[in-house]
Amino acid sequence: EKGNYRHFMQKEIFEQPTVVAQTLNSYIRQVDQSVALPQIDYDLSQINRVTIVACGTSYYAGLVAKYWFEQFARLPVDIDVASEFRYRDPVLEPGGLALFISQSGETADTLAALRHCRAEGQTIAVVVNVPTSSMAREADLLLPTHAGPEIGVASTKAFTCQLAVLAALAANLAVLRGRLGREEEAEIVRHLIEAPACLNAALDYDEAISEMAHLIAPARDVLYLGRGPDYPLALEGALKLKEISYIHAEGYASGEMKHGPIALIDDAVPVIVIAPSGPLFEKTVSNMQEVSARGGKIVLISDAEGIADAGEGCIATIEMPRVHPLIAPIVYAVPVQLLAYHVACVKGTDVDQPRNLAKSVTVE
Ligand code: F6R
């Protein structure tokens, strides 16, 4: 089943170019470079706000989507983890789209939140990987990811496929709301179509990441920093490292460092900085320099240009292909996953079955 791979997680990381392409194929019409969602009996152009609910890694995919829905579709977005959402009496007004993201489609808190939103009259959209799941059955708008079965407990390929679907949904809502013209829609589609090749290029860095894993493995704490749509990747990187290598890790919005966490910085705390070239690069790098000035040991994940610009003094750099900011969160998921994977391998943990965790959390 695992073929030439040591672990399911590793196999699933390497499947991403294929499964993201597969997923995009069902949301994009290549002939006219447009976005096409599955049919539903509801006029999505009438949506006036989006409420996103999910747990764990799926929640981080939702956090990225919030940036996209706001930027492209100019829709207000509320987002929460399901266990909080359910118990906080959220305000749900008519015309809202409630969007649930789940690999398994069975996560108890997410499912309960879905039922609550249905009772409150929201239109229910579901991004789900298991097409026969409870959430899939209870959706008005079913948006499947085509990642195939995910065996590794740590979610990898489901995450990048969720991002692909969410980017297509953001573009579609933007078109329906008259925020994107034909040409801009085609441009977004062209960037999305580039994602699988860029994921392949990102995977080429596997060996280099494996060679630097020993730099992180001895750490007791690790910080991840990112900004804008790449900030959720800092959270995802920290979650992956925690769950499979058992190293304590936290993700922060890079601009938040100086509001507290920078006090943690010393030469024993590696700081992983996710900074693709783009409109937020300079800002992220200036936060990174604040960390270096305090003796922080930095691993910079960027493209050749970003590394040439800011890589000096880092203990390691991880070079990604140069990508459009829209697909950066999809492509930069790879180095973050690989880093956690290789650190866990150095530590000899059970990568596919981390202690205390279950693949599908069907209890509250
Ligand atoms: C992390 C991970 C979990 C899941 C979370 C939600 O690697 O796998 O955080 O993302 O339990 O699960 P689903 O997506 O099945 O609702």
From TrEMBL:
<keyword id="KW-0963">Cytoplasm</keyword>
<keyword id="KW-0808">Transferase</keyword>
<protein>
    <recommendedName>
        <fullName>Glutamine--fructose-6-phosphate aminotransferase [isomerizing]</fullName>
        <ecNumber>2.6.1.16</ecNumber>
    </recommendedName>
</protein>
<dbReference type="GO" id="GO:0046349">
    <property type="term" value="P:amino sugar biosynthetic process"/>
</dbReference>
<comment type="function">
    <text>Catalyzes the first step in hexosamine metabolism, converting fructose-6P into glucosamine-6P using glutamine as a nitrogen source.</text>
</comment>
<dbReference type="GO" id="GO:0006002">
    <property type="term" value="P:fructose 6-phosphate metabolic process"/>
</dbReference>
<dbReference type="GO" id="GO:0006047">
    <property type="term" value="P:UDP-N-acetylglucosamine metabolic process"/>
</dbReference>
<dbReference type="GO" id="GO:0097367">
    <property type="term" value="F:carbohydrate derivative binding"/>
</dbReference>
<dbReference type="GO" id="GO:0004360">
    <property type="term" value="F:glutamine-fructose-6-phosphate transaminase (isomerizing) activity"/>
</dbReference>
<dbReference type="GO" id="GO:0005829">
    <property type="term" value="C:cytosol"/>
</dbReference>
<dbReference type="GO" id="GO:0005975">
    <property type="term" value="P:carbohydrate metabolic process"/>
</dbReference>
<keyword id="KW-0677">Repeat</keyword>
<comment type="subunit">
    <text>Homodimer.</text>
</comment>
<dbReference type="GO" id="GO:0006487">
    <property type="term" value="P:protein N-linked glycosylation"/>
</dbReference>
<feature type="active site" description="For Fru-6P isomerization activity">
    <location>
        <position position="359"/>
    </location>
</feature>
<keyword id="KW-0315">Glutamine amidotransferase</keyword>
<feature type="domain" description="SIS">
    <location>
        <begin position="212"/>
        <end position="354"/>
    </location>
</feature>
<feature type="domain" description="SIS">
    <location>
        <begin position="40"/>
        <end position="179"/>
    </location>
</feature>
<keyword id="KW-0032">Aminotransferase</keyword>
